[in-house]
Specification:
alpha/beta; 4 helices
Amino acid sequence: MDRWFDVAKIVYDDGVRPGKPAPDVYLAAARNIGIAPSECVVVEDAVSGLAAAYAAGIGYIVAIGAPAEFPRLLACDGVAVAIESLRDFPREQLLDQT
């Protein structure tokens, strides 16, 4: 991962913070990169992770999963879109958010 990211800024479940759906992991990640949660994008595949992103105040939440799961994922608070693959990520929507 160090090829794309500053390893010192990566946040993961190290057992120190409460797990999802608590927002702590997303709040820590936003703090590490120095931007407000409302300016962050989260891509999540679990309902508990989507709830955590919403609770953290993440500005753009993308659910990822099988199309059969889209209704359940889209029913989660704050989810902007559901996609099947990162290839489907709506990059143009991010440009419209500014």
